[in-house]
Amino acid sequence: MSDDSSGRKNLRMPDDDQVFGVVTEHLGGNHVRVRCADGETRLGRIPGRMKYRTWINEDDVVILEPWDWQDEKGNIEWRYEDQDAEQLRREGHID
After folding, report:
1. Residue ranges of the alpha helices (H) in 1-95?
2. How far is 23 from 87, CA to CA, in rounded Å?
3. Residue 25 and which of 55, 64, 75, 91 are 20 to 30 A apart at CA?
4. Which residues of 65-87 are buried (b: 16+ CB within 10 A; e: fewer)?
5. Residue 49 CB contacts under 8 Å (≥ 6 apart), including other chains
6. What is the mean pLDDT of residues 31-41?
């Protein structure tokens, strides 16, 4: 666990080419609509490695990596657990 009493964990943060997002809609198959922290709404693709191990639901906080060749789409790289998402909200990373 973390060494301070607030229960704060060091959470995975987006790389330079990634953004925080909140899933707003499940579009079926392996696609979701994601409202990103940079103000864009993108089509997120759930990669095969996550598809069956990590269930992604509406209002989940994720890291999305926009595609170089199509900025309005991207891959979901990570999904935060509920308590981790709360921490990100408290710290002001997402609203």
Report:
1. 48-51, 82-90
2. 17
3. 91
4. bbeeeeeeebbbbbbbeeeebeb
5. none
6. 95
